[in-house]
Design brief:
Layout (H helix, E strand, L loop, with lengths): L3 H5 L8 H23 L5 H8 L3 H29 L1 H21 L3 H29 L2 H33 L5 E3 L2 E2 H7 L2 H10 L7 H6 L3 H12 L1 H15 L21 H15 L2 H14 L4 H29 L1 H24 L2 E2 L5 E2 L2 H20 L1 H11 L6 H29 L1 H23 L14
Helix pairs in contact: 2-5, 2-6, 2-7, 2-9, 4-5, 4-6, 4-19, 5-6, 5-8, 5-9, 6-7, 6-18, 6-19, 7-8, 7-15, 7-18, 11-12, 13-18, 13-19, 13-20, 14-15, 14-19, 15-16, 15-17, 16-17, 16-18, 16-20, 17-18, 19-20
Main location: membrane
Keywords: Cell membrane, Membrane, Transmembrane, Transmembrane helix, Transport
Family: Belongs to the major facilitator superfamily. Sugar transporter (TC 2.A.1.1) family.
Length: 476
């Protein structure tokens, strides 16, 4: 095993830091589109409900349908990336983003809309696992966490951009269901706005190299050596090539899903269960209820559509600020402390939101009515919850999934964790309108509070720190 001092040295002669940062930023455009595609639905719920004349269950499925594609995309992206490459899968995702953005806006029925949203989901699922994996595989350990955290900033920036675009388009048209330009309603233009960053992502991907770790795993050592030399310089590149070779030396076969089962015990490796737990708890705390149904949520407690969309913009801005703080902290304090601090913060703030909602009454239209003080408490606590999430589980979960698995099982481990993440996301998103109509906001948020409490103990007992460790040191 390489000596640790070589891995953690603050300076690496010959390293092309600027190039590493640049190609990582290109990869994070996938995260931006992930966020935009996820958040754009927030301002279009009224539009698709009106256009397709759907009830609560159908509306919930229309919103959540993308997440089915996300689960499939995440599942296959990891294994296909082991076969065809990380960059190749990102290129395919870019094409799917373009198709989905256009089709979702032009759809004339729920069925047609769901098809295009599922295509978008395939892209989001692939980008969600491939972008952080690519960054982790090209970045040095000493600032890998910061670069991988930029992925979450990109996701939140995408959400923020979609919230801002939704707000501005609805304001120009007077509402999301009003006609805007060329005879099309504003909610359709909300989807079409994504075409610009999606096309940019597709073009820029042609200018970044393939992951060197993928190239070594495929036996393409000369290509890998060329990429590593470009990233780290000739001497460091040669050393890194040797480290990657050594990490794969005990098992020369190509990566496959069966590698997730330990040969020694015949059981699924513990690291896989930890990955699944991280991926699942990130969703069970209910964050995407805020991201996907923010406008519906705030209208349900008495805010106008315009004010609700503006609150989404505020939440997006706070999220970006929180992620920037994480970039500054993650390689200093580590991943695990941020996770458990975030879990405690989310449990407290979700509890306050639950309390505020529990004090409300229901008007003749069935909408929750809060007093001024309780409305303010719900608004502040909900935004504090978003901040705690984006200080911790939002970025850190993706950082850890991208780096915690050994080289041999990284693609397969990401596939399983990604499937778990998006399946949980789908279940939370699909059930929220029914929970809202059936048991109310207070009970729904009470469930999310309990999950945040449980996540504290999960982190303390099962999650191990990965700060400062090279990918070749990860154990399964």
């Amino acid at each position: 095993m390489p000596r640790r001092e070589h891995m953690s040295s603050p300076h690496a002669p010959g390293e092309n830091t600027g190039f590493i940062i640049l190609i990582s930023l290109v990869a994070t455009i996938g995260g931006f589109l992930f966020g935009y595609d996820s958040g754009v639905i927030n301002g279009t719920v009224d539009g698709i409900t009106t256009a397709f004349n759907s009830d609560a269950a159908v509306t919930g499925f229309n919103v959540a349908s993308m997440l089915l594609g996300c689960a499939v995309g995440a599942w296959f992206a990891g294994t296909l990336a082991d076969r065809y490459g990380r960059r190749t899968m990102l290129l395919l995702a870019a094409v799917f983003f373009i198709v989905s953005a256009w089709g979702s806006g032009i759809a004339t029925s729920s069925f047609e809309f769901v098809i295009y949203r599922v295509i978008g989901g395939l892209a989001v699922g692939a980008a969600s696992v491939m972008s952080p994996a690519y960054i982790s595989e090209v970045a040095p350990a000493r600032y890998r966490g910061r670069l991988a955290t930029i992925q979450q900033i990109a996701i939140i920036s995408g959400l923020f951009a979609s919230f801002l675009s939704n707000y501005l388009l609805a304001k120009v048209a007077t509402s999301s269901v009003a006609e805007l330009w060329m005879g099309y309603e504003a909610w359709r233009w909300m989807f079409w706005a994504e075409l610009v960053p999606a096309a940019l992502f597709f073009v820029l991907l042609f200018f970044i190299p393939e992951s060197p770790r993928y190239l070594v795993a495929r036996g393409l050592r000369e290509r890998a050596k060329g990429v590593l030399s470009r990233l780290y310089g000739a001497v460091q590149g040669e050393r890194k090539l040797g480290e990657i070779d050594a990490s794969l030396a005990t098992d020369h076969h190509r990566p496959r899903l069966s590698d997730l089962v330990s040969k020694a015990t015949g059981r699924i490796r513990p690291i896989v269960w930890v990955g699944v737990g991280l991926a699942t708890f990130q969703q069970l705390v209910g964050i995407n209820v805020v991201f996907y149904y923010g406008a519906v949520l705030w209208q349900a407690v008495g805010f106008s559509e315009s004010d609700a969309l503006l609150i989404n913009v505020l939440s997006g801005a706070l999220s970006i600020g929180a992620c920037i703080v994480t970039v500054l902290l993650i390689d200093r304090v580590g991943r695990k402390p941020l996770l458990w601090i975030g879990s405690v913060g989310m449990a407290v703030t979700l509890g306050l939101v639950t309390f505020a909602f529990a004090t409300g009454g229901v008007d003749a239209a069935g909408r929750l009515q809060l007093s001024d003080s309780m409305g303010l408490l719900a608004l502040v606590a909900a935004n504090a919850y978003v901040v705690f999430f984006n200080l911790s589980w939002g970025p850190v979960m993706w950082v850890m999934l991208g780096e915690m698995f050994p080289n041999q099982i990284r693609g397969s481990g990401l596939a399983v964790a990604g499937l778990a993440q998006w399946t949980a996301n789908f279940l939370i998103t699909w059930t929220f309108p029914m929970l809202l109509a059936g048991i109310g906001l207070a009970t729904a948020y009470g469930i999310y509070t309990v999950m945040a409490v449980i996540s504290v103990f999960f982190v303390i007992k099962f999650v191990h720190e990965t700060k400062g460790r090279e990918l070749e040191q990860m154990e399964g």
